[in-house]
What we know:
Elements: H1 3-6, H2 22-55, H3 71-80, E1 87-90, H4 93-106, E2 112-115, H5 123-129, E3 132-135, H6 153-159, E4 164-166, H7 177-186, H8 192-197, H9 201-206, E5 224-227, E6 238-243, E7 246-250, H10 251-277, H11 297-300
Parallel strand pairs: 1-2, 2-3, 3-4
Antiparallel strand pairs: 5-6, 6-7
Amino acid sequence: MGENVKQTNWGERYTSRYPQTRMGVEQFFYEYFYRAKAYDDKKRLHEASIAGRRKLFFRKQEPAPVFRKDLELEALVEILNGERHITCHSYVQSEINMLMHVADSMGFKVNTFTHILEGYKIAERMERHGAAGSTFSDWWAYKYEVLDAIPYNAALMNRAGVLTGINSDDAEMGRRLNQEAAKAVKYGGMSEEDALKTVTLNPAKMLHIDHLTGSLEKGKHADLVVWNDHPLSVYSRAEITFVDGCRYFDRGQNEALAERDRRDRARIADAMRTEKENGSETRKPERKMERYYHCDDIEEQ
């Protein structure tokens, strides 16, 4: 929802796509969900017709009518039937409220609002609807619709009973979500346990995989990190990391491998220096830049 949909922050060249207003976004949702309802009704009638024809197999039948399957509307029907859980990109109070109203009137539930920097304004309404909120810890003022963002957002949503998580659009910050979660302790007085849940158990619940991961329990995947200090501290270092019970990182082992690599680099550098002194052809090294991926990169490629 918001500026990303109506392209307000895309520049002056982007003014032709529908919708171009927030009211248009709401109308767009209604239009497609009404189409999905009509499609589902037509599909049910078609299936009933086929079933009726099968009962009359002993009679000569005309060919069954063809029903054209629409994958886009199939997905929307799954949403209406509670079979597909949706996540909605959102920011401002009015739009969050709007989509919950659309969902209530059409008979489904919004699973999670992401970014949702004005969630604190409407947290009680979200709790009644049953929607979760996954937000930035303290991002603010990078576009017009986030001017009312406050660092207390996560704590206030959590206090209102909303299932709350901390997310990030930044590749580097995404590696340190434990530190992002710690900001909710400083801003809002969230308990350390609840803060840690915003990047562990709560997101797992939003994704409906909390029976597999998100906490340390018998029968779940053993996804865990061993820290050398408090996991919410900026001074803590990850010592050992397990994924599905397999050790993927061990700091002691990593330091031994780093020493091995230093010896290999020294050996290669000595060999290159010797080749240069013996008159071999040389060339300047080429730097390969590491690519950080973002949420819209797939469209660019």
